[in-house]
Design goal:
Arc Repressor Mutant, subunit A; alpha+beta; about 230 residues; Chorismate lyase; single chain
């Protein structure tokens, strides 16, 4: 229940329905007809995504992570989605099933020979090329994907169908030179330097269900990451 409430709050924030501050806990309890404990669990998730901060005695304020001249990628969301802007569209290059080879197993920590859904897609914002994404989903955890789901948000689809949500993720951001294959798909020259995000995503008992490599080519990108001082000491 609280995961669904958190998703709804995140959607409301991303669509500017709550632009400065969340409603009070009491108002949210009435809105969703749940207990204070459930609301606090939901808000904790939203805060972990870097979208709100608590001010003692004043409530929960929305973090403004937008930048006037930049498109912001919120890495704290656990995915590379950029929801502060218009919805993305996709062009599917490859959608098939493969088995992890030794290279994939070593790079992402998946079992050698594991059955995988493979999606290679180009993503666009307002018809402007945004990224090239190589995504893999472990079939033992995500048995099926649909063509509709891979044209939109795969994470939204598997959350609804399999109740799979990211519990934690490993993310590596680097500047890499394009291979000939990547350059051809992006319409760029081989060895062009691009920002690349490599992710391994886990759910429940640290079970790997997805890993990916996203190559960003959209102009004026900015990467946001939220960090909290867990100890409470400065």
């Amino acid at each position: 229940m609280y995961h669904d409430i958190a998703d709804d709050l995140i959607h409301s924030i991303e669509n500017k329905l709550f632009s400065q501050k969340l409603p009070t806990e009491h108002q949210l309890m009435e809105r969703y007809n749940v207990s204070r404990n459930t609301i606090r669990k939901a808000i904790d998730i939203v805060a972990q995504k870097g979208l709100v901060r608590r001010v003692q005695g004043s409530g929960y304020f929305v973090n403004d992570i937008s930048q006037a001249k930049h498109t912001v990628v919120n890495l704290t969301m656990g995915t590379s989605r950029t929801r502060y802007h218009k919805e993305m569209t996709s062009k599917i290059v490859t959608f098939d099933e493969i088995h992890a080879d030794e290279a994939l197993a070593k790079e992402f920590g998946v079992l050698n020979g594991a059955a995988l859904h493979r999606i290679i897609r180009l993503r666009y914002i307002d018809k402007q090329l945004y990224s090239l994404e190589y995504a893999y989903y472990v079939k033992s955890e995500v048995p099926t994907l649909t063509l509709v789901s891979i044209n939109h948000s795969i994470f939204d689809y598997i959350a609804k169908k399999y109740d799979i949500r990211i519990n934690n993720s490993d993310q590596y951001l680097s500047q890499d030179a394009l291979t000939s294959e990547q350059a051809n798909l992006l319409g760029l020259k081989p060895k062009t330097a691009c920002m690349v995000l490599q992710q391994s995503n886990y759910y429940k008992n640290d079970v790997l269900f997805n890993f990916s490599q996203t190559i960003y080519v959209y102009p004026n990108l900015s990467f946001y990451f939220h960090a909290a001082n867990q100890s409470g000491n400065s």
